[in-house]
Write a structure and sequence with these properties.
about 50% helix, globular
Length: about 230
Amino acid sequence: VVIFGSARIPDRETAARQLLEAEAAALGSPQDERVQRAAAVARRRLDNSRYYDEARRLGELITLGAEASEACDLVVITGGGPGIMEAANRGAMEAGGKSIGLNIVLPFEQRPNDYITPALCFHFHYFAIRKMHFLKRARALVACPGGFGTLDELFETLTLIQTGKIERVPVLLLGSSYWRRIINFDALLEEGAISEDDLEIFQYVDSAEEAWEIIKTAYSTCQLPA
């Protein structure tokens, strides 16, 4: 189960600390628009830290589901970095299971997080090769809130399913309020750029439990322990 999302969304404790620092800087520089904007972003980041919690919980649910059934071979796979990726790997580790990280060499942000199973941490230089390995193995894709990288990975998946280049799998957009604000799929439909059938390629969800229920239904051999 591929879990994408921002490297910039931290856990709640880290986000709260960053907000205190940003607000202190804003108080000291009330005329500095850049500093004021940084404080506003820090407030949003604290609110968005709930998605860290959801990704962590989803990593746990997937791992527990796989361990509860010998017929279920689903495993968490992420981009291996911080933020949402870290959360999903962390949830899997805390549930006592393994998880995969497909890390990529970048000048900033990206370093392997501490929760990937060490033997399953792989490094890539090219985005295209990395995405190929994601989609080659994907049995479901969960896109949590993110930026350019998350959008790139999401739209490539949607395009490949739309054009029949890969087998259809559940594509879940976790955080409906975020995704409806960021991407206006209805406008694409109204402009004739996509068809109504294309809107059925993905689903909105708002919790790890909701996402896991859809994945579990798609792969009925995967069950949570009683």
